[in-house]
Amino acid sequence: MTIRLPHGNRRERTMRAIGKNLRILAGAPLAAAALIALTAGSASAAIPVNQPMTGKATYYNDAGYGACGTQINAATQMLVAVSHTWWTTANPNNDPVCKGISVKVTYQGKTITVPVKDQCPSCDSTHIDLSQPAFAKLAPLDKGVITGLSWQFVKTALNGKTVELSAPITGSTIG
Asked: Are the C-beta atoms of residues 79 and 134 closer than 8 Å to each other?
C-alpha cells in the first residue's frame, strides 16, 4: 500500500525544505548585521555631538595610559577626560567616545578643542576634567575650577579639525 503525502513527491518536499532552510540561513547574517548596527548605533548615539552644555571644568596632570588605551601626559598634552556617564562599552579602549570625538570648550570668549583621551570617574555629566595646559588656555591654574563654561562634543578629523556631523571621517581615528 502506498500513501501519497500532500504537496507532491518526496523529492519535491525535500527541495522545498532545503529552500526554506536556505532562506532562513540567508536571513541569519542579515539579522545579525541588523543587531550589530542597532547596538553600535545606540552606543554612538549616546554621545550628544554638537549639543551645547553648560558646566564646569577642573584640571589634572596625570601621566600613563588614558581610558582610551593610549599614553597620555595631562601635564604637557592638550586633552580632556569626560565623565564616566558618557562611556557606553565595557572596554573603554573601544568606546565610541574615543573614536574621533573631541570637546570644544568656550569660556569668557576663549575657545579650545581638545581630544577625549581619558575618563573622569568623579565627574558628573556636565563636568569635564581638562589637562593642565588646556585649562591654562582658558583660565589661570590657581583658579582651580571654572564654572559657567559651555562645551560640546564634536567630531574631529585626523588633523584635529572639527568636522560637520554628517561628514565622513576617513582613515583611522585611533590614537
From this structure: yes
pTM for this model (two decimals)? 0.67
CA dihedral 32, 37, 43, 49 (to 10 degrees): 180
Q: How confident is the model at residue 161 (pLDDT cuts 50, 70, 90)?
A: low
Cα separation, 112 vs 142, in Å, equals 19
Locate cell 577626560: which residue?
81
Strand partners, 87: none
Name beta bridge partners: 71. Answer: 65
Strands 53-60, 127-131: pairing is parallel
Please write the tens of the pLDDT for every residue from 5-20: 444 454 554 455 565 5
72 near 115, Cβ under 8 Å? no
